[in-house]
Specification:
Mean pLDDT: 74
Number of domains: 3
Oligomer: single chain
Radius of gyration: 32 Å
Structural class: mainly beta
Distance between the termini: 25 Å
Helix content: under 10%
Low-confidence stretches: 1-25, 33-40, 292-297, 511-535
Largest sheet: 9 strands, antiparallel
Number of strands: 34
């Protein structure tokens, strides 16, 4: 198993290598089997801890605990698609600073938002209809430079080649009424434009009867028409290289609509980011999608988790590709045989966790944080076990002056002391065997897990039956001193670190926060959840 991170998509990505490049014990943070019952492998989980920039602890989130710290039971199901796709991210306070410009917000029009997402490496662009708006007086617009725009003032020519009625109200306002066939007539106007140049026409639609009708607009009868489904009160902008000096609006079937505020302007410079000053609506948040670099399929889960974990785990579907040979990196053909000596491998079935979900759950405030990811196995804790005597809990009863040795006593799920001793002084039960089975060949990958997401490596151990023959205990030697805030009778656990702890520095913003921007002179009070930057 290996780890990869892809914060461009606001995800931590944990990829499971089925070929086993690195030999590690079986690790399954979603333990279940095909019978629909819990598998034998339990006690595995992922812990994500949130720390301040100075390393001070805030809280942890667990894949094996619910919101009320109750244990999560994973059961097997057929593959089911999760509600989320792995390629969508909510970006709070999108600004030019995210894409190499100055720290001013982005205009909330579709073109600007789409190109913001693309420039921010979300190749799928803007997820339409997801923007939340606020006001600003300086902003970035993705647009071209134009000559002065003018409202249409040419002479309209009505061509009635269908049914229905057409009416000219003003030079910049026309009406289609009751067109019923495919081409219910059209207007074209002589506008005195330069043939072959690039122009942009914008207009507003109103009075639409919402009966399914459309209309097209283009420069020149033989040009490429763009068909529009009008929305009452919505503005549209069409850019096109002209083929004639005339502007055409053509009605489709079942259309009644007023087209007004017809504005024409000539493009003098190509599309680019332009800093403009005017009080307008800008984006307080936007959702962007990525069509590359992440799995193209929806999450497919073959388990059900009850209750909902503090830290959800997702998995994508199977994805077979060729490696080596003539078809390197291409999907495997039928029969999963790759030509030219290539081998078909599965690069799917990847596991993911989404930090922003947990941060929202925990009501974490905006700011700069460290995220610490630990991949742990607790050999003394058996999930979904009804026999509470099989669960072991450890408590510190003594700390050496160097604080590098600690004495632990054990209690079970019923809070009874473990182990017990018979009348002859022999230790009863399997406690000794379990301790020996875990720690006798520890290879320095077992840790003492204490409060505040701290793990101290265990370097040696001893079962003490001499100091108190009636109450045997466990002495651990630690790699580093026990912190002074961990006191006698503290509850601790003995666990195996499957992977080295991973730490990422992030900048996080919450729903209640919008970053102030120099030059706005405005106070923002609304926003949206998202992780928008990673150091």
């Amino acid at each position: 198993m290996r780890l990869e991170y892809n914060f461009n998509n606001q995800h931590l990505e944990m990829i499971e290598d089925i070929d086993g490049d690195i030999a590690v014990p079986d690790f399954n943070p979603t333990p279940h089997d095909s019978s629909g019952l819990m598998g034998e492998l339990t006690g595995d989980y992922i812990r994500m801890s949130v720390l301040n920039e100075d390393g001070s602890f805030i809280r942890s989130f667990y894949s094996n605990l619910g919101a009320a710290d109750e244990e999560v039971i994973y059961t097997s199901t057929g593959d089911t698609a999760a509600d989320l796709t792995p390629d969508t991210a909510a970006i709070a306070n999108p600004s030019g600073a995210d894409i190499g410009l100055e720290d001013y917000p982005i205009l909330s029009d579709a073109d600007s938002l789409n190109h913001y997402c693309i420039d921010a490496t979300y190749t799928g662009g803007y997820e339409g209809g997801t923007v939340i708006e606020t006001s600003a007086d300086m902003y970035y617009r993705y647009t071209a430079l134009y000559e002065d725009a003018v409202f249409f003032d040419g002479n309209w020519i009505i061509v009635d080649d269908g049914t229905g009625a057409m009416e000219i109200i003003e030079p910049d306002e026309i009406i289609f009424t009751g067109a019923t066939d495919k081409y219910g007539g059209f207007f074209h106007g002589v506008v005195g434009i330069d043939n072959g140049a690039e122009y942009e026409v914008s207009f507003t639609t109103s009075g639409y009867t919402e009966n399914g009708g459309t209309f097209s607009v283009n420069f020149g009868n033989s040009g490429t028409a763009e068909w529009i489904t009008p929305v009452d009160g919505q503005s549209f902008t069409i850019s096109e290289t002209t083929v004639e000096d005339q502007l055409y609006f053509r009605a489709g079937s079942n259309l009644t609509v007023t087209i007004s505020d017809i504005l024409i302007r000539k493009v003098t410079d190509p599309l680019d980011w332009i800093l403009e000053q005017e009080t307008v609506q800008v984006a307080a948040s936007v959702e962007c999608t990525d069509s590359s670099g992440m799995a193209s399929t929806e999450y497919a889960l073959d388990w059900e988790a009850v209750p909902d974990p503090q830290l959800r785990i997702y998995k994508d579907g199977e994805l077979m590709i060729c490696t080596g040979g003539d078809n390197e990196g291409t999907p495997c053909p039928g029969g999963n045989e790759c030509s030219g000596g290539g081998v078909c491998i599965n690069i799917g079935n990847n596991l993911y966790v989404k930090p922003n979900e947990a941060l929202e759950l925990g009501n974490i405030n905006e700011g700069n944080y460290q995220l610490q990811f630990d991949f742990l196995h607790n050999p003394f804790y058996v999930l979904n076990e009804t026999d509470v005597t099989k669960k072991y809990y450890f408590y510190i009863t003594q700390v050496s002056p160097s604080r590098k040795e600690v004495r632990l006593v054990t209690r079970d799920g019923a809070n009874d002391r473990v182990p017990t001793v018979d009348i002859d002084g022999n230790i009863e039960g399997s406690w000794v065997q379990q301790i020996e089975g875990v720690l006798s060949d520890h290879n320095f990958n077992f840790v003492l897990v204490i409060s505040n997401a701290r793990n101290i490596p265990i370097t040696n151990y001893k079962i003490d039956k001499i100091s108190d023959p009636v109450n045997p205990s466990l002495i651990l030697k630690l790699y580093s001193p026990l912190p002074i805030d961990v006191v006698r009778l503290a509850n601790v656990t003995i666990e195996q670190e499957i992977f080295t702890t991973q730490i990422e520095n992030i900048r996080y913003r919450t729903e209640a926060y919008i970053d102030p921007v120099v030059g706005f002179g405005l106070d923002y009070t609304a926003g949206f959840l998202g992780i928008d930057d990673v150091d």
